Amino acid sequence: MLLQRVSAQPIFSPDLASDWECYNVFNPAVVYHNGLWRMWYRAQGLDWISRIGYAVSADGRRWNRLRQPVLEPADATDSRGVEDPRVVWLDGRFVMTYTAYGRQFSGEGAPTHSGGGILPMVAVSENGVTWQRLGPIVRGEDNKDHVLFPRQVNGRYAALHRRWPNVWIAYADDLHTWRETDMARMYGPRPDDPDAWDSKSVGSNGAPIETDRGWLLINHGYNDDHVYKFGVVLLDLDDPTRVIARPKTAVFWPEELWELRGDVPNVVFSCANPVVDGVVHVYYGGGDHVIGLATCPLAALLDFAVNAS
Q: What residues does 96 pair with on adjacent strands?
């Protein structure tokens, strides 16, 4: 296992005294900015509706949380929850991608999933606490796992998104308008390999990491056993649609009891992989219940991406 847990215990757990985060805290976004670790995490409480909380840390392990959520449902398009934030520092502000889950379907034709509306949303904030919703990348489809590149690519914004079961890329001149003509499929599961850990589904984790050898992605997937695992993918810097390398071996999977069990068993799910002092910090939800942290030197992860089979 290339990623190593910093502790056998979670680093962040539900607040039993809170009505909105007493059951589950998981799938956080984390950014290291101006010497401070900032976390936006998905939380569920007494009503089981997901909200996004905010916490800060001096060391990335011990956290002080805001007592109230910073993003929560506002209308029928996200009435069932705001989920799985991913945050980048872009153009001098925080930009969040998150999933809005609502009772109202937004799109043409019929919903592509049971329950109504899923929107892959974009929001911006100057301070990380007050957020302005900009709108979705697409409408009318079960599209999740969307994350922005941390800088413009060839003068345009770029985002990965997931049209199940495949990962796509989208380009835009601004963060409001994402045209279908500017989208392309990148890669998908490996169904023809009976031993593949990602033969059924794949999706993106945190923001792509820029290196001198390409954009390094940490992704997730599962096979028919439905055990979530992480892998790596290397993309071309100038043309991210070109996959340079994609090792067949996973780099992380559930082992601790709080990952094997939980609100959803056999799940490790990450929305954040900031690099600080040459070390990749992978924050992840364990069992959809608590938050863990695993790390790896960036050089080792990049070497694995290039040389592993």
A: 87, 123
For the chain (length 309 residues), average pLDDT per consecutive 10?
Answer: 96 98 98 98 98 98 98 95 98 98 81 75 98 95 94 97 95 96 97 93 98 98 97 97 96 98 97 98 98 98 92
Q: CA–CA separation, 37 vs 30, rounded Å?
A: 7
Q: Are 169 and 154 in contact (CB under 8 A)?
A: no
List phi, psi (to 5°) of 301: -70, -40
Report the alpha-carbon distance of residue 266 to residue 277 in Å, rounded: 31
* Domain range list for the chain: 4-307
35: helix, strand or coil: coil
The pLDDT, as a whole number, for residue 178 is 97
d(C-alpha 272, C-alpha 274), whole Å:
6
Name 278's Cβ contacts closer than 8 Å, sequence gap at least 6: 297, 298, 299
The 8 Å CB, 24+ separation contacts for 259-263 are: 259/286, 259/287, 259/292, 260/287, 261/287, 262/286, 262/287, 262/288, 262/289, 262/290, 263/23, 263/24, 263/44, 263/287, 263/288, 263/289
The CATH superfamily label for domain 4-307 reads Glycosyl hydrolase domain; family 43 (2.115.10.20)
Question: Is 235 within 8 Å of 208 (Cβ atoms)?
Answer: yes
First to last CA, the chain: 15
CA-to-CA distance for 303 and 92, rounded, in angstroms? 31
Rounded Cα distance between 179 and 137, Å, is 8
165: preceding bond cis by omega (within 30 degrees)? yes
pTM over 0.90: yes
**What's the pLDDT at 112?**
65
